[in-house]
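Dissemination and training. As part of the outreach component of the grant, students in the summer workshop were shown how a complex can be specified as a set of sequence lines and then modelled as a single object. The example used during the hands-on session is reproduced here so that future cohorts can follow it. Participants entered these lines:
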Amino acid sequence: MPMAAADIETAILAALPGARVEITDLAGDGDHYAAVVTAAQFAGLPRVKQHQLVYNALGGRMGGALHALKLTTKVA
Amino acid sequence: MTVHDRIATLVNSNDIVLFMKGTPFFPQCGFSSTAIAILERLNVPFEAVDVLADGEIRQGIKEYSDWPTIPQLYVKGEFVGGSDIMMEMFQAGELEQMIAEAGIARSEA
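and obtained this result:
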């Protein structure tokens, strides 16, 4: 079950207000995305924790509805 | 033994463990394939666990690491990340540094 890019962005912004989210649909199939998330909330956190914040924002959908999300996080 | 204990034993009895889909020779997913390519470039010995061959570990590792996807890399019992983090760290030279600091010797040529 694919997930729309706009839904991914909405979910991330809900959990990380003020973040900048850039999403690319890698394969054009609504199922393989790349996301660059820039957020002040990442400051001082190791990469694993930064990625976990984004995955948690997506609830249980990562690895389920959302098969592939190549994730890059940056501190704002 | 619970799945939590099985995973704890795996990650604590091997210096480097990669939970992946498929095997190092036949990765079954592009992300797992990337992870293997990085470890081979680093030329370090590692234990690969095929989660497709073990449904209990496939589910259990996601909870153990609080990480929703496969592959997952462990170094000295510590969760490092998935393939995106591995690639970022590899390109920055941080993965090589982490392995060196952990005192893990490279494979024989």
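The beta strands of chain A are 20-25, 32-39, 68-75. Students were then asked to discuss how this feature might be tested experimentally.
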